[in-house]
Amino acid sequence: MRGMTASASGFCTIVPPHLLDRLSRASDPVVAAAARRTLITDAANRTARRLTTVAGAAAVPPDADAVPDRPTRTVYDAGHRTALPGKKVRAEGAEPAGDTTVNRAYAGLGATFELFRDAYGRDSINGSGLPLDATVHYGRDYNNAFWNGDRMVFGDGDGRIFLDFTLAVDVIGHELAHGVTQYTANLAYFGQSGALNESMSDVFGSLVKQKALGQTAEQADWLIGAGLLAPGVQGVALRSMKAPGTAYDDDVLGKDPQPAKMADYVRTGSDNGGVHINSGIPNHAFYLFAKELGGNAWERAGRVWYDVLTGGGLAVDAEFADFSRLTVAAARERFGAGGAEVDAVVKAWSTVGLPTE
């Protein structure tokens, strides 16, 4: 939708509100209570972030100890409360903590930093060495992870539906990629631009995971949040880029609502106009593009997406068709008009039903 001005530097969660809303009505009172608490906490954080954005965020002071092209990570423990940042438990270069959740968060921050540095020459999420802060053990049975414009925050899950949110490195990459979008195209978090915002995070979150595991496009599972669903939940992840709409089909969670093609685009007023739902369309286009090219997806396919995100031509309120055209132009500029990259990206967008001219 054109004309929306919702800021991209908002409160971005990995689990969408429509899914939590369904869980809040579950017959299991423990599941329902955890979902309701998560929704209430998210609503408060969303409002606080909106007020901060309107007032203007404070400038991040330079870190005197920062080393160029090296991460500066700090992990905090909220102690199952919601006051941020919590107690500092691991600083950059410190020995591993006795808490595996702390260590997974620390490693995930590093893996994300390394993808953007090694593949795209970017120094942290803002391009100039921004310190990476994370808080773990947030809230009680908190069923989410989020980027609030300043830091990563992870819940432990309720153990019934969701497990510890640091278990999936692509979730860490996903949320930090919202920060990259915030500092570059700043895509408005509503409708198609919001779905592009979410898709960018899924794309780069998946690439963080693939690079960390040394996987090619053929070897990757292309799942977002694999390992987050508790035993007994009928599903494999939160989303599938390879096959949107197939990540879960569960009596409690419901069925994955993501479409793979524009013909099935979901028009809804919930979830900021379906930002976590319709992101399946550009997600699938990226998967098709990367799979067609083969090799390491972060190299050629990821480079095209990164070029568009950071190139200055992507409007705040961009729609899918705007983005598809820009990716073709970016592939042509970087790899040449007659290259396999141009043919592959045109084919990918055509398959999902979007124009490239």
From TrEMBL:
Cofactor(s) the protein requires to work: Zn(2+)
Pfam family, one: Peptidase_M4_C
Gene Ontology biological process terms from the UniProt entry: proteolysis
Domain of life per record: Bacteria
GO MF annotation terms: metal ion binding; metalloendopeptidase activity
EC annotation from Swiss-Prot or TrEMBL: 3.4.24.-
Keyword set, alphabetical order: Hydrolase, Metal-binding, Metalloprotease, Protease, Secreted, Zinc
Record domain Peptidase M4: where: 100-182
GO cellular component: extracellular region
Cellular localisation: Secreted
Peptidase M4 C-terminal domain span: 185-353
Segments forming a coiled coil: none
Catalytic residues, chain numbering: E175, H276
InterPro entries: Metalloprotease_M4, Peptidase_M4, Peptidase_M4/M1_CTD_sf, Peptidase_M4_C_domain, Peptidase_M4_domain
Record function comment: Extracellular zinc metalloprotease.
Family to which this protein belongs: Belongs to the peptidase M4 family.
Name of this chain's protein: Neutral metalloproteinase
Species: Streptomyces lavendofoliae
